[in-house]
Task: inverse folding
């Protein structure tokens, strides 16, 4: 009864649950000679925003169609269009009785008034109100059930397209995550000895300036406070924890919102790390990390 078309490229997705928010699905069928075409398109959106464009004959079915879309999708701006096409034959009905009455009236007028031409053009007759009427759509119950079935098929195609694009997004997200992990470890390596070196230099410098007038215990406490200001161990630990959480999300269903939030947390820790960096090389690495987190977040905003 129906055929389905969907726009998508690439091979079948192998990543469970992860889908893009961009896709297209189409299904077509017929009811008592009337063509029914259902198309569903989706693009990125923070939440789920569904717009239906229906012919008047299906206006009462809007709640059911809307509920079906919402049961299948979680995020995206979704446009659903349903079109009805009248049969090639029988799409319009001509009232032949009215045509005959018009022709008879014209002939009678010509008989009574010889100056009037009795010939009647068919085009003129068809323009008379009531002569031509549109064919009535199929019964509502048949049209409604067919449209719901076709929308289900169109949404299947839409989801298939979103899943195919989602595979590419998944690979990009994994690549960005691995890059972030590598940069975090680079920062950890560069700062591993930085705190001890900073503490030693501070102690030497303070000792020289104070010429041993400060008690050793007080001196050690002051140095510890200063050294703590450049210690990024806690920030690195939280960055690793967030990245481990990201690994879990990337294998879950519909992680888009959660990944977006997690990227904000990653950026917060990266900013704190940047504020503590004392050497230029480490600072550049943190800048690279922040850039990767931003790219990661941009890609996550395409995920359902």
Result:
């Amino acid at each position: 009864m129906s055929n389905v078309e969907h726009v998508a490229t690439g091979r079948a997705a192998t990543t469970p649950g992860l889908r893009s928010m961009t896709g297209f699905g189409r299904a077509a069928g017929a009811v008592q000679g009337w063509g029914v075409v259902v198309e569903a398109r989706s693009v990125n959106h923070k939440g789920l925003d569904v717009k239906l464009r229906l012919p008047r004959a299906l206006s009462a079915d809007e709640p059911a169609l809307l509920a079906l879309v919402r049961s299948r999708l979680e995020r995206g701006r979704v446009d659903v269009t349903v079109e009805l096409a009248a049969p090639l034959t029988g799409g319009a009905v001509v009232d032949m009785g009215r045509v005959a009455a018009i022709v008879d009236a014209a002939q009678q007028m010509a008989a009574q008034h010889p100056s009037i031409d009795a010939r009647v053009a068919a085009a003129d007759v068809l323009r008379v109100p009531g002569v031509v009427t549109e064919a009535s759509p199929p019964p509502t119950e048949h049209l409604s059930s067919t449209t719901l079935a076709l929308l289900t098929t169109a949404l299947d195609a839409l989801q298939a397209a979103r899943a195919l694009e989602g595979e590419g997004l998944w690979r990009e997200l994994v690549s960005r995550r691995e890059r972030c992990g590598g940069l975090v470890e680079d920062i950890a390596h560069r700062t591993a000895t930085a705190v001890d070196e900073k503490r030693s230099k501070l102690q030497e410098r303070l000792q020289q300036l104070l010429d041993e007038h400060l008690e050793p215990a007080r001196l050690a406490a002051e140095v510890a406070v200063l050294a703590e200001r450049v210690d990024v161990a806690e920030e690195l630990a939280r960055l690793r924890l967030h990245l481990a959480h990201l690994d879990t999300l990337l294998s879950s269903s519909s992680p888009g919102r959660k990944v977006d939030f997690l990227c904000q947390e990653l950026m917060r820790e990266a900013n704190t790390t940047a504020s503590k960096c004392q050497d230029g090389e480490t600072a550049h690495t943190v800048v690279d990390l922040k850039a990767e987190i931003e790219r990661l977040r941009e890609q996550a905003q395409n995920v359902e």
